[in-house]
Structure formats: structure tokens, C-alpha cells
């Protein structure tokens, strides 16, 4: 929705990272006053027993500000943090673009993300930049992923984003009359989060297929609420507030919430497709596309795998991650198997992003099969190609598809079947014949009837008879029905299906630690600039001091802001013990060895500290 009034400027929260000069001052003070200072006590430290569902819902609701291509604010809305570690945010498509035309308000699909302050009362803190991962104008849903910090385009994200994700519920279990809550940032509510309460007034099945796409409610959904959070009475996600409809004559109003069942299916489909192109370790090149022109976002304007003769410029655009400036990067172009161009240079485009390379001939590139190889430090990251000129004869034969959970040393499938339990990767094996290098072919993976991953390329395996492709997700493929379609020159040739019955247990990624620091004699007086340090597990304060305060032994840190609030810059593991040091120039330092984070600690875990003045 378009913003028709100015948005209040929101200040930034001070960083909780360690400043080296500040750290050295604090450590020197600690040394002068006594190595370990005062021990933490029940009076000095209090830990919150558990976070309520309401607090989790408040923290999971974010503000979204959407600029136009000139950088001016164009729209605003709300979003819900669905996954905290990678920063996935669910919202409405119309918050980010025009759902009628299917066009985003800015080319990059970017939004500024405001997160709740620690006190859960004030204006959101504009902290992150996020970009669209996928959008469905028909469903009016979109998924964002946090990609950077506000005002720091080249700086890498911290390992811990400090986010809290919402718990999920089955919206199909709702009944008319059940209570629900709507959270978001409506324009009429000012610049702070607003919550409204209502009842499930009914359901709407738009296409009469016995799937209820909408939840009707009397809870308020106004401009700016769009894309936010709807919860049940247990503060669990049950949908996305999308629209409010008013009848002027009767002064009546009804609001519509996109069903959580529909929204979560969109979310899972997107994660499966996105994980296949973004999740892996080490240097990598992904999403390679070829074309005759590239835009300013390093994207191919009209990608393809076959181009007409006479082309003078052939571009290859790609995304990359895990790179380091100064490393040797090599591009090698081949024409019909023979090397025609090789360039080596020092990489200077940062750790991750998008880039492109090209091959040029002012008289026109000769017809044939062109391949590109990309290498980092002589390690091959990619090889693939396209054809120019007359299209190769199209003749594809793909045999039946066999699905399996692994590949043995001989390249054969292991644990083959059509129904699998909790797995991260499924391999699809098939025979291929009658294909020539350069023949366009592709795969389409679908989940629950909708495509999640498409890949069309030029065949480069020569006369190889057996091939395999795979679909993977680091958190495990979601339960449901999957299909794979093999195509040749745009025509479907072979199809297979399998099902996943369960998802693996999700790994424990730890919990955030937040809290406030106040004076012992007057807890209403908050301490600004106190440094909170957690040492690596098993490291005592004395051992740390004996290493001359080695930064390598510091597990996490946080600095209290103007409100005396802090948040550690790394998550801690429940059930683990950490030595803690709290330092400030004007207060006595305190410390504690082997402080236990409860095994049932909620995220975030609140640890409040009081300090005694010198």
C-alpha cells in the first residue's frame, strides 16, 4: 500500500560489539580493582524464568519500510520473523509491490526492517536491509531475507541477528468464535507497534475447493497492518493480516487474514527452492544465467540457453558467496570444447553478492557451443554453457526416474524408493540418450503442486547415459508430495514423484541473551556503556586474565545503551556454562565462573545485572 504521509524518523540502537579501545580501558580497570571483582549474586543478577508467548509475538513482528528506485520512501507495512538464524520475514506482496501488475516498488526488491526495542514499548529500531526471496502476487504473499545492515552496504551481517521467530500453529484447527490477535504497524497507530483483539468471524473458500484461503475477523486490520502477524490465543502464528473491508452505509467492517495453512505452504515451497541455491559452505557460485545484456543489478535481462547468430557480447551473471578480496579468480571460455579465452585477476568485489563476466567479438561470435568455467584459487566452482547460431537437433530420451537418499562410489542410487522419512537431500537418477552437447534441457522440482525450483541449461555431458540431479535443504525437506519433471527444448519428457513423511528435528541454534544494567542502590537508574562479556565454555575468569585478556577467549559481548539495555552479539547454548564479566569505569566490576544457562531457557533469555558505584 502506498504511503501518503511522512514516516517518523527512528533512531538507531547503539551497537553492542566490542570496541577495542573501550575493551582495553575496561580490562585495565578490572585488573587494577582486582582480578575477578565481585562475584555475581542473586542480588546482582536476576534471570527471567521464561518468555511469554505474547513477548515472543511482539518481538517477531517487524516494521517494513519500502523505498522506490530513487531511495525515497514509497510504502510501509509489517512482517513476521519466521526464521531467526537466517532472517526470513513473511509479509504481503502488496507491501513490496503492485500485486495487480506483479511489479516490485524498487528493482532490488529491498525493504528496511525495524525491530522491536528491548523494552517492547518504544519505536522500532531501523536495523536491517532485506530483499525479496520470492513473491506470489496471486496469493499476495512474499518472503524477505535479511541481507545487510542499514547504512552499511558492504559490511557483512553479524553471525547473530538477534531476532526472535514466531511459533507456528495449524490454522485449520481454528473454529468460529475462537479469539485471535493482530499485530503490526498501522499508520494510524503512530510509529509504535499496535495490537488488536477479535474473534474468528468465519472462513472464506474463494474457489470452492474445500480449502479455506481466508480467515474473517472483527479484529482491526488497517493500512500498515498488512503483512504483519495474526496469532491464536496461545500467541502462535495462524495467518497474515491482509485487508480490511468497510461498509460506509452500515458503518460495519470486516478484516481478512490470509490463512496460516496457505501462507506456510508458500513459505515451505520458497525455502526448498531457495535452499537449493543459497545454502552451502565455502566459496560458491550459484544461479548462473547467460544472455546478451546485463542490468545494473548484475542480472541477465533475457536469460536463455540458445541465442541467434551474430551475437557480439555473451554475458554470464551469477551470485557468489564465501569469497575473499585478493584471492585469484579465473574465467575460462570454451568454444566447441577448445579454450578461446582465459583471464585471471585478484577478486575485489567482497565476500558475497552478484557479478558478471563476458565474452566479446566485434565481428560476431562464431556459431557453436560456448562453455564458461569459473575458478577461485584454481578450484573449479562452475562449468556450463549455451549455444549460438543454429539450434542443435532436438532429440531427447530420458528413462524412468529413480529417487534415492544417496549415491554410492559407483554412482548408483542407495536407499531407493518413493516414500522417505526425514531426509535433507533426495537424488533423482535417470538414463539419457540421443542428446548432443548444447541441447537445451531442464528440470522442474515441485512441492505440493507448485514449482519450487527451475533450472534450464545446455546439455554438456556428451554421450553419458546415466545422470542424477538432487534437491536439498539443510534443515530437512518438509513433509509433503514432491515431483520432478525433465524437459527437452521446453517440452516435458519424463516425470516422477515421491513423498516425505517427516522433517528432521531442527538443530538447537541457541538463544539470545538480553537484559538491563542498573545501579544496585537505585534500580530505576540505568547504567549506560557497561560491557558484558561471556567467555568461551570451560574458560574461567582467572584463566582469561592469565592470557592477558585474550579476545579469542571471548564468546560474546554486549554494551548497554542509553536505556541501560544490552544484547549479546552471539547466541548461547541452553545447558552450557559460561564465565561472565561485567565492566564499567564508574562501577565495581563483577564476575562469575560457570554461569549455567538453563536447559529450558527461552529465546530470548533475560539476564539483568546491578552494579555498585566505585
Notable features of this structure?
six-stranded antiparallel beta barrel; Thrombin, subunit H; six-stranded antiparallel barrel; 4 domains; 5 helices; Immunoglobulin-like; single chain; mainly beta; 614 residues; disordered N terminus
Count of β-strands: 42
Q: Numbering strands along the chain, what is their spatial order in the largest sheet?
A: 3-4-5-10-9-8
Determine the mean pLDDT: 85
CATH topology title of the largest domain: Thrombin, subunit H
Question: Class of the largest domain, according to the CATH hierarchy?
Answer: Mainly Beta
Q: Can you give the helix content as a percent range?
A: under 10%
Separation, N- and C-terminal Cα atoms: 54 Å
CATH architecture of the largest domain: Beta Barrel
Structure report:
The chain is mainly beta and 614 residues long. The protein has four domains: 20-47 and 508-611, Carboxypeptidase-like, regulatory domain (Immunoglobulin-like, Sandwich); 53-279, Thrombin, subunit H, CATH 2.40.10; 284-388, Macroglobulin (MG2) domain (Immunoglobulin-like); 397-472 and 476-500, Sandwich (Immunoglobulin-like). The strands form ten sheets. The protein has a six-stranded antiparallel β-barrel. A six-stranded antiparallel barrel has the order 11-12-13-16-15-14. Strands 1-41-40-37-38 form a five-stranded mixed β-sheet, with helices on one face. The chain starts with 19 loop residues before the first helix and ends with a strand. The model is unreliable at 1-22, 24-29 and 31-38 (pLDDT under 50).
